[in-house]
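Practice problem 4.
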């Protein structure tokens, strides 16, 4: 019997900088740069739904599935005994 597990990692990096260039009423050039003019909202963590353990039998086909709901890109990778199974799946 095989026990298969899903592990995933999410990394979120948000950087916002607003820069304004112009000329004032007296003809002087000016520049304003601020990282606080816009307050980004950090997205919530992805929601993952899957069985914690999927049981199978030696030399038989097993179906492993999971559902991920996310507003940010994520990668899915399946492991068995800390060894990667298949390729990493990247979603945007």
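Answer key:
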């Amino acid at each position: 019997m095989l026990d298969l597990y899903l592990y995933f990692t999410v990394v979120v990096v948000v950087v916002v900088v607003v820069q304004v260039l112009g000329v004032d009423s007296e003809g002087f050039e000016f520049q304003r740069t601020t990282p606080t003019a816009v307050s980004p909202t950090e997205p919530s963590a992805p929601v993952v739904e899957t069985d914690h353990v999927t049981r199978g039998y030696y030399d038989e086909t097993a179906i492993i599935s999971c559902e991920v709901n996310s507003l940010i890109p994520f990668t899915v990778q399946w492991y068995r005994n800390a060894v990667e199974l298949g390729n990493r799946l990247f979603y945007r």
